[in-house]
Design goal:
126 residues, mainly beta, 4-stranded antiparallel sheet, 11 strands, 0% helix, globular
Length: 126
């Protein structure tokens, strides 16, 4: 069973930075597109960022463009989300996701991802 495990969440002041990491605890995702979603209390889960299988192409939600950067290290089977200039509205549980499709471009929609981690909480105080 493929598993994704997120880490790096925490409490940070507005304007600060955090880096989230995602590791595959079983299997490899070197040929899968991956991404990050988030869900704030009382809100629907929303797309944050996506990256293609090789790391050469990325997608971002408008709300995080210019502040967040997604990257991957396929040799280490890791995906990262560098979050800068954090705002209170970034407060949410952040989920790492992976497609079941191989060698695809970055994806934006929930139904395009087959594997989900359990999430890591990010809280940004004002």
């Amino acid at each position: 069973q493929v598993q994704l495990v997120e880490s790096g969440g925490g409490l940070v002041q507005a304007g600060g930075s955090l880096r989230l990491s995602c590791a595959a605890s079983a299997g490899t995702f070197s040929a899968n597109a991956m991404g990050w979603f988030r869900q704030a209390p009382g809100k629907e889960r929303e797309f944050v960022a996506g990256i293609n299988w090789s790391g050469s192409s990325t997608l971002y939600a408008d709300s995080v463009k210019g502040r967040f950067t997604i990257s991957r290290d396929s040799a280490k089977n890791m995906v990262y989300l560098q979050m800068n200039s954090l705002k209170p509205e970034d407060t949410a549980a952040y989920y790492c996701v992976a497609t079941s499709e191989f060698y695809s471009g970055p994806k934006r929609f929930i139904h395009e991802y087959a594997y989900w981690g359990r999430g890591t909480q990010v809280t940004v105080s004002s």
